[in-house]
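Notebook, bench 3.
Goal today: get a predicted structure for Ribonuclease 3 from Desulfofervidus auxilii so we can plan the truncation constructs. The sequence was checked against the plasmid map this morning, with no discrepancies at the termini. Length recorded as 251 residues. Pasting the sequence as submitted so the record is complete.
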Amino acid sequence: MLDQLQKHIGYQFKNKDLLKQALTHRSYAHEKKVKDNERLEFLGDAVLELVVRDYLFHKYPDLNEGCLSQFKEFLVGEGTLAEIARFLELGKYLYLGKGEIQAHGEEKTSILADAVEAIIGAIYLDSNFLTASQVVKQFFLPWLDKIKFNANSDYKTLLQNWLQQDYHILPRYHILKTSGPDHDKEFEVGVYIQGKLWAIGKGKSRKAAEQMAAKMVLKKLRSVKKEKKTCASLKMSKSSTRIGKEKPQGN
């Protein structure tokens, strides 16, 4: 059965056990006492990030860091990874525990995205960085055509899309402090997620401060997501568990 998947991927594994491990969700691993795909996912995430950053850096020499970051966030985000997984029909190859099978885990965005990263990590171990890079580009370059970002795109939009897609919630922004004379004011804006202050941004306008705060939160979310894989530290869930009381105003 895995032969067909390898054809879809465009890579034949020398060590088929690596591919099987990449497809093994922790629910199955717990039941069968085998290795899950989380370590491979950890590695694949790093390989994917470097390949995408390198490609964007050389492909778009005139884009600033902000635009490059937006492109990168789109390409390595769960939504894009899950789309690729569905294109590969990856769900039917996953090894899932009984509970996840009943919960249709093969359709879950997070499980599919994690499996794609794990496969990238497995390809890297089975071959080398250059080969893994070629496989990544094969599947990711078509997604560049879907990028709709323009000069009006911003970190607030990216953060909103991330939170809506993964957690079905929205961030809230509140001015915490203003200082300086009217002609040279500085704003401090806090961004709250489920009532919890995640970052404070500063700028010469409210909009600039909000952008800075949203950018900081995006970096934290990616960092927390990576930590979650090994430390189970992320407390936010799609069930939108409340964290404190949300501030009463803001948008």
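Confidence is low (pLDDT under 50) at residues 230-251. The two ends are 50 Å apart (CA to CA).
Flagging this for group meeting.
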